[in-house]
Design goal:
Elements (H helix, E strand, L loop, with lengths): L7 H13 L6 H13 L5 H5 L18 H15 L8 H13 L10 H6 L2 H4 L3 H5 L2 H7 L24 H4 L5 H4 L3 H57 L14
């Protein structure tokens, strides 16, 4: 983890909680997770995101700007791709969250620490992003229609081939589907494609099992036939065995 504990440390701890705790995969739980691991743990949003700092980029390379929080949200998105039914929120929720991380419209991600936000009375001078996103009309927009509570541990595939480029965020200014409001449809199409792939894999596995079962049935029949022949041989050998003792004749008195 990082030396100060507010960059890579919350990345790891927050990801671990997402994998372990189903509550953090709900809309409410995800907000609690961000508040506890990032905001209250004093992640330096202002310096890392360079939001609201006049002349920030004029200082040359003497700055600590780094998309640490964005990297974490990217990891969350990768998880939502691999476990589409395990998260209550959808991709639009993450996109809107990142939009307002930079918009400075809400006080959740202002300043460099929780203490600084308290000293500047940010909570009473700004709106909360969570209140805005919790409005009924917004919740309907952010809800994952195929959400099914997943209480088991999530075990993601972390290989390079399993990772995807998040074009709907990094190329959002060039992707018409972001502004056309079709993300719900795209999410459903992606889910259908994924289930189609899973169905094909299961169908292949079923075909292999059926072929294996057929071979086992044929082997079972051969063994049964061999067993029948063996019993006949044993029965015939008992009938023709000259050493077999005859029944004793009754004695005469």
């Amino acid at each position: 983890h990082c030396s100060d504990g507010w960059d890579r440390t919350p990345q790891i701890t927050a990801l671990a909680q997402l994998l372990l705790d189903p509550y953090t995969r709900t809309i409410e739980g995800f907000q609690v997770l961000i508040e506890s691991e990032w905001c209250e743990f004093s992640h330096k949003f202002n310096e890392r995101l360079a939001v609201g700092i006049e002349g920030f980029w004029e200082g040359g390379e003497n700055h600590e700007c780094s998309p640490v929080f964005i990297q974490w949200i990217d990891c969350v998105w990768q998880l939502t791709r691999q476990f589409r039914q395990a998260f209550e929120f959808n991709e639009r929720y993450l996109l809107r969250l990142l939009l307002h991380v930079y918009s400075a419209r809400f006080g959740n991600f202002l300043c460099n620490s929780y203490r600084e936000r308290l000293e500047r009375n940010i909570a009473n001078q700004t709106l909360s992003l969570w209140s805005y996103m919790a409005k009924p009309e917004n919740l309907a927009e952010f809800y994952n229609p195929i959400y099914r509570p997943h209480k088991k541990l999530l075990r993601p595939d972390c290989s390079i081939r399993a990772l995807r480029f998040w074009n709907r965020y990094y190329l959002r200014h060039y992707s018409p589907d972001i502004t056309d409001g079709n993300l719900e449809d795209i999410l459903l199409v992606d889910a259908c494609n994924e289930w189609t792939l899973k169905y094909q894999l299961l169908a292949d596995q079923q075909s292999k099992l059926e072929r294996r079962n057929k071979r086992l049935e044929e082997r079972k029949k051969r063994l049964q036939e061999e067993n029948r022949k063996l019993k006949e041989i044993l029965k015939g050998s008992q009938l023709t065995d000259p050493t077999a003792e005859a029944d004793p004749e009754p004695s005469s008195t």
